[in-house]
Amino acid sequence: MNEVKPLLVSAKRIGLEIDEGKRIINDAIQAGKGRDIERAVTLIADARRALDIAFVDFIGKGIERFVQEIRAAKGEAGVGVVTPGLLEAVGRMEAGDYDGAWDTYQIEAATRIGQQASERLKRDVPDFVQEEMRKARSQLLDLKLKGNDLAKPIGILKESSALVKREAWAEALRQIRDFYKEIQRLE
Questions:
Q1: Which residues contact 31 (CB under 8 A, 6 or more apart)?
Q2: pTM of the predicted protein model
């Protein structure tokens, strides 16, 4: 029983459904309570096999999907970059270290998700910042028509423009936020 308990905890942690394994373990517990030790030991071995199969299937499918995504995105060269981590995950899985295999695979998946997020940011943030700059300039013109002193907001917007040219998007957005604060103070 001590052999399968950690597997149950691991399955819960990674979100693996193991109904078959749980059923067999419950049968083993009942056999043990009925003093049928031979049947209980056999059932625990069966449960261990069922859990091993479930883990290998679950983690293995995730690794296969990941390799296919890498191949589709970057070709064989991309797979070569992540192969050491994937091989480590597979090795841990084969050794029955399902927690270690899952964690190693998740690090590879996190890297992929991080790269995708970074690519989306590089694609979407510049357009967003440019749109905010356009809105800020428009608001500046409206304030100019009202005759306000615009030296400070103009300075902030110029600094923001310089940051946009350097592609320092986060700093540019901070400057735009400061611009809006200054505009609110003027109104």
A1: 37, 39, 40, 43
A2: 0.51
